[in-house]
Design a protein that fits this description.
The complex is a heterotrimer of chains A (about 325), B (about 200) and C (about 300). Chain A has about 325 residues and is α+β, with helices and mostly antiparallel strands. Chain A is built from ten helices and seven strands. Chain A folds into two domains: about 90 residues, Immunoglobulin-like (Sandwich), CATH 2.60.40.1220; about 180 residues, no CATH class. Chain A starts with a helix and ends in an 8-residue tail after the last helix. By secondary structure, chain B is mainly α. Chain C is of the alpha+beta class. Chain C has two domains: about 80 residues, no CATH class; about 130 residues, no CATH class. Chain C is built from eight helices and ten strands. Classes of the chains: A alpha+beta (about 325), B mainly alpha (about 200), C alpha+beta (about 300). The interface between A and C is medium-sized, with 13 and 21 residues.
């Protein structure tokens, strides 16, 4: 398991570095968004200052609207003449990728087209964090509550449930993604979404159960009991439905399901910590048990509301 | 045996003694998530009622042909089928209400209450009893959702079923998403209080 | 062994049965769904233009749909518009990124089928001899005419809000003054950002002239009472004359943000601004091309 993970991470890193290696050969070595109306471009060699600050050299548009050019207000050349920063008259919509075409900057050179986007790794981490904190499935989307209240009494149970759930979540989400991309969409069978996704979840639970029982009986003894509960958790079916709605790709799917599972684990752990303490507290008899758990969950939800609107990348 | 119970008793049982939300504490997600208005509660209640009744009846009819080893997959398949049906019908004929409920209609498939009723009741009892039990459970869910919706809508927006009742908004807090937890918690505590008071009165 | 075969047979039968039930429902509902969506869209359009059940649209008015595409061919990008013709049929006009006319190709497609995105894409692609994957559908504009004269434009668009995307429909008059804004879909928080659907927010956009839209911002000052009454005309019941007077007074004013939902308010304001400005730029180019090429369009 660990070996596979390491190999996967290495491939992932390689894929992310690959574009950087290719770009190194070209005129443009680096490009990024600066301030809210700024694009910063770095060149591999010093460029002619006159052409570099001429706004006719650059055409910039948002990818979906190629016919609408963005107005450049000012161009500032870096001191070593190896970079420019384009200042636009309007704030840029950084969620879209921006296409910049540079022409006539160097003699006898074809126009170079570069695409400026927010870093993809940042975007992926953004998805992960969003599912973990900002859109935490338990505290801000209110899913998986039955299992949440049922298994958050003890920290040990919480950890066991959380880990088991995360594993099943990731595996079933990835399978659902393959089914959705290569079977449901091409054959126009999207109305079967619910049946297919729930079927895949049951299948994953059954498979994990069998494999764990054979491979690691010790682990099975501690986690096996939670497997049955996984299927009664709405989060596990909500994630594939969200994937289908948003047309996520493979890596995004992985991140979202990891975030969903991790978020559930986090919620369970926080809640169980409070509930262990609560056993010692003097609670009015009417509130004992489930009602007070709901009030505590409400306070957590209120606290998680503070994460909304958070933007890191 | 539960078969001795009359149809009426089965329905009342679902609404009061075994209310899915306040008593069995199952299917809490929609009770917290989309109970901001009574209308939402009613709509999702209708959807759950439909799925519960049809699944119960289907299982009750075919119970002799279901192999015990594939019991759970068959239940899941049955529920998923009826959820798909109601999902498609709502999306086609009531698009506005459907948009408000969002993902929750599809999530009925993971509601523990329905599977539990199939396992505990429909797979053992007659078709007729299962029908009434399904209706009872569905109505119980609907009543619970609408009760929460009543409190949240009245206190949060000063309206009921969309009609202006108070003319002002007493506490915006109640329609904020996280208030669902507080409302459900407080209502459960309230029912506990009544029960405790009732028991005391009986003893005295 | 016998056990397994019965299990398999019964499970297969169950699956087939379930499949039949779902398939039949899908067949019965898919047409109704399309029809209802269409009806709803028509209703929103009529209400944006100020018509309702009691005050229906006059017969002389007509709606013409213009579909915009982005075409990628050998790393070159061009913009294409599918426009209806005066008599019948459609023509596909391609324009390069600098606004110069490239070509106009007649496209034969049934008027009923043109609403369907796939059918439309296929028809255009076959006429242009193009792989459909190089043809990207961008958006749709509806041009409303009364006896051949332009009355309004209806635009749709979506932009990121506080949580997910907000999709809207806008009505503009021929000088790009906003006639109305309708929020079609959103997932903002109820009670906070969800208030964007309320009259006192979305009606603020009504009557804003193009000059004001170009530099529209949100302000965090509280909404004045008299303006609020004018915006919620249905509730407060003040006379039409007063409403016009108040609207005139505030027409160049910024949008008053919703309490506790500045980001959602700002998103709608910016999004609307973007949609109107891009549209104004594009329609000018399209009009120039249509005039220059003498294409007989019904608008």
């Amino acid at each position: 398991m660990k070996k596979i993970m390491t190999r996967y991470t290495l491939t992932l890193l390689f894929l992310l570095v690959l574009p950087g290696l290719v770009w190194a050969q070209d005129l443009v070595t680096d490009k990024s968004f600066g301030a809210d109306n700024e694009i910063i471009i770095t060149f591999s060699q010093p460029v002619a200052p006159q052409a570099a600050v001429d706004s006719a050299t650059y055409t910039v548009y948002e990818e979906p609207d190629p016919d609408i050019r963005l107005q450049i207000k000012e161009i500032i050349l870096a001191e070593d003449e190896k970079g420019v920063s384009l200042i636009f008259s309007e704030p840029l919509n950084t969620t879209e990728s921006h296409v910049v075409t540079i022409a006539d900057l160097l003699p006898d050179e074809e126009p170079t087209t570069i695409i400026v986007t927010k870093s993809y790794l940042g975007y992926l981490i953004g998805i992960l964090l969003s599912a973990l904190l900002i859109n935490n499935f338990v505290f801000t989307k209110y899913l998986g509550l039955c299992v949440f209240f049922g298994t958050s009494k003890r920290k040990d149970t919480a950890k066991g449930m959380g880990f088991t759930f995360t594993i099943v979540m990731v595996v079933s989400a990835i399978m659902s993604w393959f089914f959705y991309q290569y079977i449901l969409t091409p054959f126009d069978l999207n109305f079967l979404q619910i049946v297919v996704f729930i079927g895949l979840v049951s299948l994953t639970v059954q498979a994990v159960d069998t494999i764990l029982r054979k491979v690691n009986p010790a682990l099975f003894n501690s986690f096996g009991v939670y497997l049955v509960l996984v299927i009664a958790n709405c989060v596990i079916i909500a994630v594939p439905l969200i994937l289908a709605d948003n047309e996520y790709n493979f890596l995004e799917t992985f991140m979202l399901s990891l975030g969903a599972g991790g978020g559930f684990l986090l919620a369970l752990y926080l809640m169980s910590s409070v509930r262990e303490r609560m056993d010692l507290a003097n609670i009015p008899p009417t509130f004992k048990g489930v009602p007070i758990a709901f009030i505590v969950a409400g306070q957590f939800a209120l606290a998680f509301l503070g994460f909304s609107g958070l933007q890191i990348f | 045996m539960a078969t001795d119970k009359s149809n009426m008793q089965l329905v009342v049982n679902g609404i009061l003694n075994e209310n899915p939300i306040f008593r069995l504490v199952l299917s809490m997600c929609p009770a917290v998530g989309i109970s901001t208005t009574m209308m939402n509660g009613l709509m999702l209640g209708v959807a759950v009622l439909f799925v519960q009744v049809f699944s119960s009846v289907t299982i009750a009819i075919f119970k002799d042909y279901i192999h015990p080893r594939i019991r759970i997959p068959t239940y899941t398949l049955t529920i998923a089928t009826w959820v798909t049906v109601i999902d498609l019908v709502l999306a086609a004929f009531l698009p506005e209400a459907y948009a408000k409920m969002g993902i929750f209609v599809k999530l009925i498939v993971a509601f523990a209450i329905i599977t539990m009723r199939l396992e505990m009741f429909a797979s053992k009892e007659s078709v007729k009893a299962s029908l009434w039990d399904g209706i009872g459970m569905g109505l119980g869910f609907m009543a619970g959702m609408m009760a929460i919706g009543f409190v949240r809508e009245l206190l949060g927006m000063g309206t009921l079923m969309g009609y202006d009742i108070l003319g002002f908004k007493p506490l915006l807090f109640f329609i904020l998403p996280c208030a669902g937890f507080f409302v459900v918690g407080l209502m459960m505590a309230f029912f506990n209080y009544i029960e405790i008071a009732y028991k005391k009165a009986k003893q005295a | 062994m016998k056990d397994i075969s019965t299990i398999i047979i019964r499970l297969t039968l169950a699956c087939i049965l379930a499949g039949v039930v779902m398939g039949l429902t899908f067949i019965f509902t898919s047409n109704a769904k399309k029809h209802n969506e269409h009806v709803k869209e028509q209703k929103v359009m009529a209400s944006l233009l100020g018509y309702s059940k009691n005050h229906p649209m006059p017969e002389s008015m007509a709606m013409h749909e213009v579909y915009r595409y982005v075409i990628t061919k050998d790393a070159n990008l061009t913009v294409g518009y599918l426009v209806p013709l005066q008599e019948q049929g459609f023509t596909f006009i391609t324009i390069d990124l600098d606004g110069r006319f490239l070509s106009a190709t007649p496209v034969e497609i049934q008027p009923q089928l043109v609403i369907d995105e796939n059918e439309r894409q296929k028809a255009i692609a076959t006429r242009l001899d193009l792989d459909p994957q190089f043809l990207r559908y961008a958006d749709k504009t509806i041009i409303v005419t009364d006896q051949g004269r332009r009355q309004a434009y209806l635009l749709t668009g979506a932009f990121p809000g506080f949580k997910t995307f907000i999709s809207v429909m806008l009505a503009l008059d021929p000088s790009f003054t906003i006639l109305g804004l309708e929020i079609l879909e959103h997932e903002e928080d109820p009670g906070l950002g969800g208030e964007i659907v309320q009259d006192y927010f979305k009606n603020q956009f009504k009557g804003k002239p193009f000059t004001a839209i170009k530099r529209l911002e949100v302000t965090k000052t509280p909404l004045p009472d008299e303006y609020r009454q004018a915006l919620e005309a249905e509730k407060s019941g003040i006379s039409k004359k007063e409403i016009t007077a108040i609207q005139e007074q505030y027409k160049d004013h910024d949008i008053y943000a919703l309490t506790g939902a500045t980001i959602s308010s700002d998103a709608v304001t910016r999004g609307t601004k973007g949609i109107v400005r891009k549209f104004a730029y594009r329609i000018a180019i399209l009009d120039q091309v249509i005039q220059g090429q003498n294409i007989a369009v019904p608008f």
